[in-house]
Write a structure and sequence with these properties.
single chain; 282 residues; alpha/beta; Rossmann fold; seven-stranded mixed beta sheet; three-stranded antiparallel beta sheet; 29% helix; binds zinc ion; hydrolase; LmbE-like_dom_sf; GlcNAc_PI_deacetylase-related
Length: 282
């Protein structure tokens, strides 16, 4: 990096756990090298499906305490990744997890997708003006896998970065088809994997031809795993003691832990950005 001021990275995520699932290695890598990393989370993830049986009464249709519980999970994950600046958009609990597309929680009056795009964008603009990141990360227009809150996060980040000229680059965090398929094939060789293998095409992936930037996270896999373990209501992590590792969401589908995290440049110059979100920025 050749920046004259400290690199500042800001990531906009929809729910607690997305920062670790999509960008955990990247966060750990830049935090470890002295960058200022800010994570903005838009909701508390109240509608997530709960994996451990002993925590299921927290659910939205029972005690409805999952959101508060996930605040603590997120705090632990941020500590594992080295994030010192975490914020909830609009403050803790301002917007609620909308749930997957077409479910009744989409209509909740505090659902993130029921909120005003203009109000949410203005709040993010305020954060951008305080933090002054050179690089901002969010999801692609499909939200990575179609979740309405992820799509809304994309929309407000696109709108907010359009009016803050100090942001040099905007990236979409994606998953690589090639890395995911190779990783899944390697999982098939492991004995004792407690999750089922993904069917071809079952995991959301992006064609490698449109990926502009690959961040090597091989030195930060243990931090990413610790962060994923912190989200124990949402993520099961498995390690075999011999270097094999995988994780699964509540659907029980094995996902490989791959050596890179992948990005599509959405705004700004890509010169020098092939392996470094800040590469080539002066
Ligand atoms: Zn999410």
């Amino acid at each position: 990096m050749t920046l004259t001021s400290p690199p500042r990275l800001l990531l906009v995520h929809a729910h607690p756990d997305d920062e670790s699932l999509w960008t955990g290695g990247t966060i750990a890598r830049y935090a470890a090298t002295g960058a200022l990393v800010t994570v903005v989370t838009c909701t508390l993830g109240e509608e997530g499906e709960i994996i451990p049986a002993g925590l299921r009464e927290l659910a939205a249709d029972a005690a409805d305490q999952l959101g508060g519980y996930r605040v603590a999970e997120l705090r632990s994950a941020c500590a594992a990744l080295g994030v010192t600046d975490h914020r909830f958009l609009g403050g803790v609990g301002r917007w609620r997890d909308s749930g997957m597309v077409g479910v009744p929680s989409n209509e909740h009056p505090r659902a993130f997708v029921q909120g005003s795009v203009d109000e949410q964008t203005a709040m993010l603009v305020d954060v951008l003006r305080q933090v002054k990141p050179q690089v901002v990360v969010t999801y692609d227009a499909f939200g990575g896998y179609g979740h309405p809150d992820h799509i809304r996060a994309h929309e407000i980040t696109t709108a907010a970065t359009a009016v803050v000229p100090d942001v040099d680059r905007v990236f979409y965090a994606v998953t690589s088809r090639d890395a995911t398929e190779k990783g899944a094939a390697a999982l098939a060789e492991l004995a004792d994997l407690p999750f089922r293998l993904p069917e071809p095409g079952e995991l959301p992936v992006t064609d490698d031809a449109i990926i502009t930037t690959t961040v090597d996270i091989s030195e930060h896999l243990s931090a990413k795993l610790r962060a994923l373990r912190a989200h124990s209501t949402q993520v099961s992590v498995w390690q075999d003691g011999a270097g094999g590792a995988a994780y699964a969401l509540s659907n029980g589908i094995a996902q490989p832990l791959v050596q890179g995290e992948f990005y599509v440049l959405a705004k700004g110059s890509g010169a020098g950005a092939e392996t470094d979100l800040f590469g080539g920025l002066g």
